[in-house]
Amino acid sequence: MSIDPAPAATLSEAAREIVEVGRFLSVRNFVPATSGNFSRRLDARTAAVTRSGVDKGELVEADILVADIHAPPPKGSSAETPLHLQLYRDRPEAQAVLHTHSVVAALLSNLRLPEGELVLQDFELLKALGDTRTHEAAVSIPIFPNDQDIPRLADKVTAMLTRRTDLVAYLIAGHGLYTWGRSMAEARRHVVALEHLLTYELEKMKVRR
Ligand SMILES: CSCCC(=O)C(=O)COP(=O)(O)O
Ligand SMILES: [Zn+2]
Protein backbone atom coordinates (compact mmCIF):
# COMPACT_ATOMS: atom_id res chain seq x y z
CA MET A 1 0.00 0.00 0.00
CA SER A 2 1.49 3.34 -0.95
CA ILE A 3 1.26 6.30 1.39
CA ASP A 4 0.05 9.74 0.33
CA PRO A 5 2.72 12.35 0.89
CA ALA A 6 1.95 14.64 3.82
CA PRO A 7 1.40 18.28 2.86
CA ALA A 8 3.78 20.95 4.10
CA ALA A 9 3.20 21.87 7.76
CA THR A 10 2.87 25.13 9.65
CA LEU A 11 5.53 25.76 12.30
CA SER A 12 3.11 24.99 15.14
CA GLU A 13 1.95 21.73 13.49
CA ALA A 14 5.58 20.76 12.88
CA ALA A 15 6.54 21.61 16.47
CA ARG A 16 3.66 19.51 17.83
CA GLU A 17 4.69 16.53 15.68
CA ILE A 18 8.34 16.86 16.73
CA VAL A 19 7.57 17.18 20.45
CA GLU A 20 5.29 14.11 20.22
CA VAL A 21 7.79 11.98 18.33
CA GLY A 22 10.50 12.97 20.84
CA ARG A 23 8.40 11.62 23.71
CA PHE A 24 7.54 8.47 21.73
CA LEU A 25 11.19 7.71 20.91
CA SER A 26 12.51 8.68 24.34
CA VAL A 27 10.26 6.29 26.28
CA ARG A 28 11.53 3.49 24.02
CA ASN A 29 15.12 4.39 24.91
CA PHE A 30 16.02 5.34 21.31
CA VAL A 31 17.39 8.81 22.24
CA PRO A 32 19.30 8.48 25.55
CA ALA A 33 20.72 11.53 27.37
CA THR A 34 20.59 14.45 24.89
CA SER A 35 21.19 12.30 21.80
CA GLY A 36 19.13 12.29 18.62
CA ASN A 37 17.59 15.09 16.61
CA PHE A 38 14.47 15.54 14.52
CA SER A 39 13.11 17.74 11.78
CA ARG A 40 9.93 18.37 9.80
CA ARG A 41 9.73 20.05 6.40
CA LEU A 42 7.71 23.28 6.46
CA ASP A 43 7.76 24.01 2.72
CA ALA A 44 10.07 23.77 -0.30
CA ARG A 45 12.69 26.03 1.32
CA THR A 46 12.43 25.59 5.08
CA ALA A 47 12.33 22.93 7.79
CA ALA A 48 11.76 22.92 11.56
CA VAL A 49 14.69 21.36 13.50
CA THR A 50 15.39 20.59 17.15
CA ARG A 51 17.63 22.70 19.36
CA SER A 52 21.05 21.24 20.24
CA GLY A 53 21.86 19.68 23.59
CA VAL A 54 18.40 19.18 25.03
CA ASP A 55 16.74 15.94 26.16
CA LYS A 56 14.65 15.02 23.12
CA GLY A 57 12.01 13.44 25.34
CA GLU A 58 11.42 16.78 27.04
CA LEU A 59 11.17 19.09 24.05
CA VAL A 60 8.94 22.16 24.22
CA GLU A 61 7.79 24.35 21.31
CA ALA A 62 10.60 26.87 21.99
CA ASP A 63 13.15 24.10 21.22
CA ILE A 64 12.02 23.98 17.58
CA LEU A 65 13.92 26.31 15.25
CA VAL A 66 13.37 27.20 11.59
CA ALA A 67 16.17 26.45 9.10
CA ASP A 68 16.53 27.48 5.47
CA ILE A 69 17.44 24.27 3.68
CA HIS A 70 19.83 26.12 1.34
CA ALA A 71 21.57 28.21 4.04
CA PRO A 72 23.87 27.58 7.03
CA PRO A 73 22.03 26.09 10.06
CA PRO A 74 20.45 28.54 12.52
CA LYS A 75 22.40 29.33 15.70
CA GLY A 76 21.54 26.92 18.52
CA SER A 77 20.11 24.24 16.23
CA SER A 78 21.24 20.61 16.34
CA ALA A 79 24.93 20.02 15.68
CA GLU A 80 23.72 17.58 13.01
CA THR A 81 21.40 20.02 11.23
CA PRO A 82 23.46 19.77 7.98
CA LEU A 83 22.47 16.06 7.76
CA HIS A 84 18.79 17.01 7.95
CA LEU A 85 18.98 19.91 5.49
CA GLN A 86 20.94 17.80 3.00
CA LEU A 87 18.15 15.19 3.06
CA TYR A 88 15.48 17.80 2.29
CA ARG A 89 17.59 18.98 -0.65
CA ASP A 90 18.33 15.44 -1.92
CA ARG A 91 14.87 13.96 -1.32
CA PRO A 92 12.14 16.47 -2.26
CA GLU A 93 9.51 13.96 -1.10
CA ALA A 94 10.97 13.80 2.45
CA GLN A 95 8.69 15.49 4.99
CA ALA A 96 10.40 14.36 8.20
CA VAL A 97 13.87 13.18 9.24
CA LEU A 98 14.54 11.29 12.50
CA HIS A 99 17.94 10.50 14.01
CA THR A 100 18.15 8.01 16.92
CA HIS A 101 20.92 6.55 19.11
CA SER A 102 19.62 3.17 20.22
CA VAL A 103 21.92 0.48 21.63
CA VAL A 104 21.36 -1.80 18.63
CA ALA A 105 21.95 0.95 16.02
CA ALA A 106 25.23 2.03 17.65
CA LEU A 107 26.47 -1.52 18.23
CA LEU A 108 25.50 -3.21 14.96
CA SER A 109 26.79 -0.29 12.86
CA ASN A 110 30.12 -0.62 14.66
CA LEU A 111 30.34 -4.36 14.12
CA ARG A 112 29.31 -4.23 10.44
CA LEU A 113 31.21 -1.08 9.36
CA PRO A 114 33.84 -3.11 7.44
CA GLU A 115 31.07 -4.32 5.06
CA GLY A 116 29.91 -0.73 4.41
CA GLU A 117 26.24 -1.74 4.40
CA LEU A 118 23.69 -3.96 6.02
CA VAL A 119 21.44 -5.94 3.70
CA LEU A 120 18.10 -6.81 5.29
CA GLN A 121 16.15 -9.68 3.72
CA ASP A 122 13.60 -12.41 4.52
CA PHE A 123 11.77 -10.54 7.25
CA GLU A 124 8.07 -9.71 6.99
CA LEU A 125 8.66 -6.42 8.82
CA LEU A 126 10.56 -5.14 5.75
CA LYS A 127 7.12 -4.26 4.38
CA ALA A 128 7.00 -1.39 6.92
CA LEU A 129 9.81 0.34 4.97
CA GLY A 130 8.87 2.72 2.14
CA ASP A 131 7.17 0.88 -0.72
CA THR A 132 8.70 -2.54 0.05
CA ARG A 133 6.11 -5.12 -0.94
CA THR A 134 7.62 -8.46 0.03
CA HIS A 135 9.85 -10.07 2.65
CA GLU A 136 12.00 -11.24 -0.30
CA ALA A 137 13.12 -7.67 -1.12
CA ALA A 138 16.73 -6.86 -0.21
CA VAL A 139 16.81 -3.53 1.65
CA SER A 140 20.27 -2.01 1.90
CA ILE A 141 21.23 0.29 4.77
CA PRO A 142 24.61 1.97 4.11
CA ILE A 143 26.99 2.38 7.06
CA PHE A 144 29.22 5.48 7.15
CA PRO A 145 32.21 5.87 9.47
CA ASN A 146 31.44 8.34 12.25
CA ASP A 147 32.82 11.83 11.68
CA GLN A 148 32.82 14.92 13.92
CA ASP A 149 32.92 17.03 10.73
CA ILE A 150 29.18 16.95 9.99
CA PRO A 151 29.28 18.95 6.69
CA ARG A 152 31.90 16.49 5.40
CA LEU A 153 29.70 13.56 6.45
CA ALA A 154 26.68 15.23 4.79
CA ASP A 155 28.64 15.44 1.51
CA LYS A 156 29.35 11.69 1.67
CA VAL A 157 25.68 10.94 2.37
CA THR A 158 24.61 13.15 -0.54
CA ALA A 159 26.94 11.29 -2.89
CA MET A 160 25.36 8.00 -1.80
CA LEU A 161 21.76 9.26 -2.02
CA THR A 162 22.40 10.55 -5.54
CA ARG A 163 23.52 7.08 -6.66
CA ARG A 164 20.97 5.09 -4.64
CA THR A 165 17.36 6.20 -5.03
CA ASP A 166 16.11 3.11 -3.13
CA LEU A 167 17.44 4.09 0.31
CA VAL A 168 15.14 4.68 3.30
CA ALA A 169 17.82 4.97 5.99
CA TYR A 170 21.52 4.91 6.78
CA LEU A 171 23.68 4.18 9.82
CA ILE A 172 26.66 6.06 11.24
CA ALA A 173 29.06 3.61 12.88
CA GLY A 174 29.01 3.60 16.67
CA HIS A 175 26.64 6.53 16.53
CA GLY A 176 23.11 5.88 15.29
CA LEU A 177 20.40 5.74 12.66
CA TYR A 178 19.04 8.31 10.20
CA THR A 179 15.73 7.65 8.47
CA TRP A 180 13.11 9.81 6.80
CA GLY A 181 9.57 9.60 5.49
CA ARG A 182 6.88 11.17 3.35
CA SER A 183 5.18 12.09 6.63
CA MET A 184 6.23 12.16 10.28
CA ALA A 185 4.16 8.98 10.76
CA GLU A 186 6.11 7.19 8.03
CA ALA A 187 9.48 8.32 9.43
CA ARG A 188 8.44 7.11 12.89
CA ARG A 189 7.32 3.76 11.46
CA HIS A 190 10.71 3.43 9.80
CA VAL A 191 12.51 3.97 13.12
CA VAL A 192 10.42 1.35 14.92
CA ALA A 193 10.66 -1.22 12.10
CA LEU A 194 14.40 -0.68 11.66
CA GLU A 195 15.02 -1.04 15.39
CA HIS A 196 13.44 -4.49 15.21
CA LEU A 197 15.20 -5.43 11.97
CA LEU A 198 18.59 -4.37 13.38
CA THR A 199 17.86 -6.42 16.49
CA TYR A 200 17.14 -9.48 14.31
CA GLU A 201 20.51 -8.99 12.60
CA LEU A 202 22.37 -8.63 15.89
CA GLU A 203 20.70 -11.78 17.25
CA LYS A 204 21.62 -13.66 14.03
CA MET A 205 25.26 -12.70 14.59
CA LYS A 206 25.13 -14.18 18.10
CA VAL A 207 23.60 -17.45 16.84
CA ARG A 208 26.32 -17.81 14.17
CA ARG A 209 29.24 -17.40 16.60
C1 LIG B 1 25.01 13.45 23.44
S1 LIG B 1 24.94 12.70 21.88
C2 LIG B 1 26.16 13.59 20.89
C3 LIG B 1 25.58 14.49 19.81
C4 LIG B 1 24.69 13.69 18.90
O1 LIG B 1 25.16 12.73 18.26
C5 LIG B 1 23.29 13.94 18.80
O2 LIG B 1 22.56 13.22 18.11
C6 LIG B 1 22.64 15.11 19.49
O3 LIG B 1 23.12 16.32 19.04
P1 LIG B 1 22.22 17.64 19.10
O4 LIG B 1 23.18 18.75 18.79
O5 LIG B 1 21.15 17.49 18.09
O6 LIG B 1 21.65 17.72 20.49
ZN1 LIG C 1 23.73 11.81 16.83
UniProtKB/TrEMBL annotation:
Signal peptide feature range: none
InterPro entries: Aldolase_class_II_sugar_metab, Aldolase_II/adducin_N, Aldolase_II/adducin_N_sf, MethylthioRu-1-P_deHdtase_MtnB
Keywords, comma-separated and alphabetical: Amino-acid biosynthesis, Lyase, Metal-binding, Methionine biosynthesis, Zinc
Domain Class II aldolase/adducin N-terminal span(s) in chain numbering: 16-202
Reactions catalysed according to its record: 5-(methylsulfanyl)-D-ribulose 1-phosphate = 5-methylsulfanyl-2,3-dioxopentyl phosphate + H2O
Presence of keyword Zinc: yes
Cited SMART domains: Aldolase_II (SM01007)
Residues annotated as binding Zn(2+): H99, H101
Cofactor mode of binding and number, as noted: Binds 1 zinc ion per subunit.
Pfam families (UniProt xref): Aldolase_II (PF00596)
SUPFAM superfamilies hit by this protein: AraD/HMP-PK domain-like
Enzyme class: lyase
The protein's required cofactors: Zn(2+)
Pathway: Amino-acid biosynthesis; L-methionine biosynthesis via salvage pathway; L-methionine from S-methyl-5-thio-alpha-D-ribose 1-phosphate: step 2/6
Cell membrane listed as a keyword: no
EC nos: 4.2.1.109
NCBIfam families per record: PRK09220.1, salvage_mtnB
Protein's job: Catalyzes the dehydration of methylthioribulose-1-phosphate (MTRu-1-P) into 2,3-diketo-5-methylthiopentyl-1-phosphate (DK-MTP-1-P).
Family recorded in the similarity comment: Belongs to the aldolase class II family. MtnB subfamily.
Name the UniProt record assigns to this protein: Methylthioribulose-1-phosphate dehydratase
Species whose genome carries this gene: Corallococcus caeni
Gene field: mtnB
